Amino acid sequence: MAAHVSMLLLGLAIGWQCSASQKIFAAAIGPDTETTAMVVAVALLAAAVGPWLPGRLILGIARFIQRRSRRSRGPDDDLIGSLWVLRATGGRDNSLIWLSISVLACAAGALSLATLLLMGPVARAYHYVLQHFFWTNLTLSGLEWLGTALLIGPSWVLHGLLITTLATVVGREEPARQPPGLVAAIVAGPGLALLLLANWGAGALSGGQEFMVGVLPLFIVAALAAKMSQRTDKPAGVVTAETAAPELPGGAEGLIWVLLVVWGIAAALAGTGWVTCRQVGARSWPSPQTQWGWYLLLLGIGTAIAWRHARHQTRSTSGCGMAAWAAGAGAGATSVLAAFYPDNLSSTLLQLLLLGLTFGYALHYAELAWLARSGSEIQGFAQLASAVLAGLAVGFMAGRWWALDALGPVGLMTASALVMMALGGIVQIYEEDRPARIRHRRLALVFSSLAGAIILFPTATRRWDSWEAASTTPPIPTDLNWLATTELPSARQICLIGVDGNSSIQWAGLGKARVDIIPFPTIELARKTSPRPPGRTRVLRSSAFRALRLEHQLYDLVYQQGQPAARTDRYAEYSIEWLSRLSSLTMPDGEIVLDVPLGEMSPRAVAIITATLRQAALAPVRWTLVSRGGQPMIRLKANPGASIPASPSEMAWAAADTFTTDTEMPRVHSIQHDRLTPLLQKGPLPSTDELIGWLESCRSGTATQEASRQP
Known about the structure:
This protein has helices at about 1-30, 35-50, 55-70, 80, 85-90, 95-130, 135-165, 180-200, 205-230, 255-280, 290-310, 320-340, 345-370, 375-430, 435-470, 480-485, 500-505, 525, 545-550, 575-585, 605-615, 675-680, 690-700, 705-710, and strands spanning about 495, 515-520, 535-540, 555-560, 585-595, 620-630, 630-640, 655. By secondary structure, it is of the alpha/beta class. The protein folds into 3 domains: about 1-235; about 250-470, MFS general substrate transporter like domains (Growth Hormone, Chain: A); about 480-710, Rossmann fold (3-Layer(aba) Sandwich).
């Protein structure tokens, strides 16, 4: 049981460190989805390398010492066999195994702390080279991937090695009597960590504090392992050639290994699709972090249920093919429910159960099949962990950078369903331990369901596309009349963020200035723009978070139009990191203008955004009320570096101090300290008319203290 508790603690550490690293890298590099996805992909790939790379290094070092040794060796002199780490795992000396786990956990914790200390200097070095060298999108991507791998990769390699080392203390002569396996603990651990963060640490912990919390379980594992090493009196038995033989001879090892990799790819694709479906056209659903937490937790529960179902049978490939087919059927049923009942709470809960439990069920049977064909349980679990983690990394990268745009969220789930059902049928062909009659019935079920899925799944995908188009809030139309009439005479370099390119380039007078139009925060706006805009107008195809990292140009005016239909995670478009970046791109006498939609806002949130802009620009902020496409907005204006606000050209402008100097000063919103998300999700929000009334009372100086304290 101590091994399972240690694995659960390791899972908590993995979940907390991954979430914290995403926050820290988003604040240091940029809050775009490519950055956060890069952190997850590098972590998974490094953890996949962990189970086998250190062992190869130890053997290489030992052989090098043997070759370089000057003393004569006797017939019984085996330096490799005398290494205590290899002797512990080979001879099943539990005392040495627990001691090695304690050392590895301490090393992983110390290396994680060193990684946290290095993140600050590395971020400063990154911004230095970003400002002093010219970069293309390709070279910048290479720099970011290489730097991320060198910074967080070593600690995640040790995490992967710990996963495999903990498996050595679970292998026994009668594995069926053990509690649910380590796979359930390591899968459910990160999910539990994400759920605890979403319900307890959201907004309360910064990225660094969250990372420190994620390091603590590693030292608890080290202490527990050190205690267990003192309580173990005898080895668990020596692994001989007879006991090391696989339970099933060769035949389909390659196919089972492919199944493990494909399971990881399909689980990542299906999870990405389901989480994306829950975020389309919805404002009341939990955050993506919470949904990923529930999904991972259900995967672990599904693995435990499969252990319960198969606890009395010996390890074999029996049931592996049908379990893979069941996972595909679960993903297919989830995609159909998501397409035909997208906004139903009962349907959402059923989707989560079908997806998580069936994939967890398939993972346990794939584990049994692989370990049955492995010559060593330790080596087999290491290969299993590497295959699954690598598959998850490949699936996550494919979903984020290609499949989601090409297939859509429901298409991701249907693709993973078809692959798992087809591969389950192929594996079923090689299962020879069942009567021919049962095998034929199973194959008939598999391929008949595939035929039905090929007919049903395209219908579900088209149904989802229709519902998504009808339910998605259209972007706010762009109106730049105020810009063309009041700002252009003094502005020669203009940056427009989050505007519609087709309508922006048509406004009179914009052709005289150098105008950069950048989509924000998604790329759908850029796809509809004219391929050849007239005059000196340039449309950048990448997102604003990415595009402005490559720009060295300074602007007279930076304008950002908020889009409530496509808000970013943690409201990154209003964070101190992003607004400071906009401030650094302005001329000495330039200005920043923000249009913040008032829908789903609160007085406190408006005050926080205003205080954040004032802190980023280091200048007073003015505001006025505007309307775009029937959507009321508050327009904020600041001149970075100005000691006093410039004289407003219209009487409608007012100083923002009227609602930012109440008795409780609003704190600055940042990516690491998210002030807006917990505030806007914890209670009912005032209506737009009430919010406008509060702003008008602030303008006239009659706002009450109670109004300023509204949520």
